[in-house]
Design goal:
Structural class: alpha+beta
Number of domains: 1
Number of strands: 9
Keywords: Hydrolase, Iron, Metal-binding, Protein biosynthesis
Largest sheet: 5 strands, antiparallel
Cofactor: Fe(2+)
CATH architecture: Alpha-Beta Complex
EC number: 3.5.1.88
GO molecular function, one term: metal ion binding
Strand order of the largest sheet: 2-3-4-7-8
GO biological process, one term: translation
């Protein structure tokens, strides 16, 4: 089932996600719905707060990035088919020299900005089997993980840009909060007037 994606301004996007257990209600269905919602919106990642659930869960599929012709065939292969569910994740370490990449977010449509992040990340998490694992990721996969991880920490990519750039996008952010934006995917807007 395709879920509505929560737009910028909704308080759920600012909540730190709570840890969940294997008996979390309808977990398998929730994860399946999140993947379906992400694919419907042509995203590469989606966190539970973006569909209104303040829990520590996000899903990723970096396959769309594998079409980038600027990447080596090895990097393209790494990205193709990288599909993973992260439950109760904790980033243990971020390493390397920060690099810039133009990021967007399904909850903040029509806004893209360069964001600096470290290239390598060590993360502890569970997949659907709830067995804890620790893995190291780098490059674009690490960046998508960091972006989605921020969501379960109540952080948005717009928090990581300069104050000047924040001022330049204020009007767009206000329009999103009020539902004055159009997307081809379902959205729910916190400040939209009823009857719109």
């Amino acid at each position: 089932m395709i879920l509505p994606i929560v737009g910028y301004g909704d308080p759920v996007l600012r909540k730190v996600g709570t840890i969940i257990t294997p008996d979390y209600p309808n977990l398998k269905e929730t994860i399946a719905n999140m993947y379906e919602t992400m694919y419907n919106a042509y995203g590469v990642g989606l966190a539970a707060p973006q569909v209104g659930m303040p829990i520590r869960l996000f899903v990723i599929d970096t396959t769309p990035f594998s079409d980038d012709e600027d990447l080596s065939s090895e990097k393209q292969n790494d990205l193709k088919g990288f599909k993973k569910t992260f439950i109760n994740a904790t980033i243990v370490k971020e390493e390397g020299e920060e690099w810039s990449f133009n990021e967007g977010c399904l909850s903040i449509p029509d806004v893209r900005e360069d964001v600096y992040r470290k290239p390598t990340v060590t993360i502890e998490y569970c997949e659907e089997d709830f067995v804890m694992k620790t893995e190291v990721f780098d490059g674009l996969i690490a960046r998508v993980i960091q972006h989605e991880y921020d969501h379960i920490e109540g952080v948005l990519f717009t928090d990581k840009i300069s104050s000047l750039k924040k001022r330049l996008i204020q009007k767009k952010l206000k329009n999103i909060t009020e539902g004055k934006t159009f997307q081809e995917y379902r959205m729910k807007f916190f400040g939209a007037k009823k009857g719109r």
